[in-house]
Give the backbone structure.
Amino acid sequence: MVGEIPVLLIMKKPIVVSGDVSVYDVAKLMVEQDVPCVLVVCERPNHESIEVATDKDIIKKVLIRKLPPDKVKVEDISSGKLVTIPPNTTIDEALEIMNKYKTNELFIVDDGKIVGVITEEDLIKIAPEIISTLKELVNYLLQIIDEVTSGDISDKSKEIQNINQGKDNKKDSESDIRKKKIMLIK
């Protein structure tokens, strides 16, 4: 199922900017690259940190306050609260983590390095595939219900029991028996 896919297969390479870049330039880059967030390398006294700036940060911390985006540095609005996950995290697990930490982006860390980002938007884009898979599952379950109510399954079940007990043909090999079972299921 789609939810079992590891985020490694759908993650994107994160965009990294210097903390002294203007919010205007970062917003322009985000629009050009069609991404809702960037990693920000901030040079702080005595240390360097990696933070995140999102489109929501720009709206809440700059635009709503009517600050000039070309004068505000991105490091002044970025946050050090990165939520990280390993590359083998499944999509279902990623959604749970996003909900738990109330975040729209997760950063994928491998061997201590940020190697990717997955956003809520990325997960929404694959939602049609999830819906399609769920529809297939529902149709399959409805088919089983129909077979059970029509008695077809019990007939197949008896045939499989006969095959297992060797009543069908004692000369059949294991491979032949498997093939017969598969044909019954189909």
Notes: The mean pLDDT is 83. The two ends are 21 Å apart (CA to CA). The CA atoms of residues 34 and 86 lie 24 Å apart.
